[in-house]
Amino acid sequence: GDSVTQKEGLVTLTEGLPVMLNCTYQTIYSNAFLFWYVHYLNESPRLLLKSSTDNKRTEHQGFHATLHKSSSSFHLQKSSAQLSDSALYYCALSDHNAGAKLTFGGGTRLTVRP
Amino acid sequence: NAGVIQTPRHKVTGKGQEATLWCEPISGHSAVFWYRQTIVQGLEFLTYFRNQAPIDDSGMPKERFSAQMPNQSHSTLKIQSTQPQDSAVYLCASSPRDRADTEVFFGKGTRLTVV
User: Fold this and answer.
1) Which domains does chain A have, with CATH numbers?
2) What is the mean pLDDT of residues B12-18?
3) Percentage of chain A exceeding pLDDT 70
4) Taking a C-beta distance cutoff of 8 angstroms, is the pair A87, A111 a contact?
5) Among 2.60.40.10, 3.30.230.10, 2.60.120.10, 3.30.365.10, what is the CATH number of B5-114?
6) DSSP secondary-structure letter at B86?
7) Chain A hits for B55, Cβ within 8 Å
8) Residue B12: pLDDT above 90?
């Protein structure tokens, strides 16, 4: 079945430094969709960005990610971390066989300090 | 649009007791999902419904967990004989279409603590 790996469980950064959260995946389907969801404390997890197009950069709210099917990766990046970026970030995968059902990675808790 | 509503937000049960968690999906959404969130496992899929019909319950611990969707406006997750390892945040989510490219909208979750 599908699987998603986020190798960093915890990332702590100083404000202003670049952010990179890793996400790799496995699926037998060529038409997979990759997502990043963000979960702020006391709120609902919500979609940050998504992609299904190989080698195309997608951006939202200062974050960006590029789906690379050759390496099965969808890393999340931001050029300059802000204190308000502190949250739990989940990479997720769906495919046409599974409908809207998402397979999530283990999550990365990002803490940005002054 | 109030979003996905989950009640209660917090529930404490004694070991061996039953816990019922409630979810009201966004009106008009055809797909409803239940996930479990823990520090160790992250977000685990439990089960989902499409147009109230159960589609996939592959993530459900079979013996004590059950989910129902009696009408389009609510779903329940019931855990019988709760155990300490059931302690987690249970998230309900809904989606306007059951398609792979569709955004899923989450509730704030129910934090279940089994003592």
Assistant:
1) 3-113 (2.60.40.10)
2) 97
3) 100
4) no
5) 2.60.40.10
6) G
7) 99
8) yes
Residue B1 has pLDDT above 80, yes or no: no
- Which residue in A71, A73, A83, A69 sits closest to A19, CA to CA? A83
Q: How many CB pairs under 8 A join A and B?
A: 71
Asked if B101 and A107 come within 8 Å (Cβ–Cβ), the reply is no
The pair of structure tokens assigned to A77 is 């990046």
Chain A interface, best mutation among B56, B89, B104, by max A CB count within 10 A: B104
Residue with tokens 């792979």: B100
What b-and-e string marks burial along B45-73, b requiring 16 or more CB atoms within 10 Å of the CB? bbbbbbeeeebbbebbeeeebbbebeeee
Report chain A residues whose CB lies below 8 A from the CB of B47. Answer: none
Is B4 within 8 Å of A44 when comparing Cβ atoms?
A: yes
Q: Give the end-to-end CA distance of chain A in Å, rounded to a whole number.
A: 41
Q: What is the pLDDT of residues A88-107, one digit of tens each?
A: 999 999 988 888 899 999 99
- At B100, the pLDDT band (50, 70, 90 cuts) reads confident
Are A99 and B101 in contact (CB < 8 Å)?
no
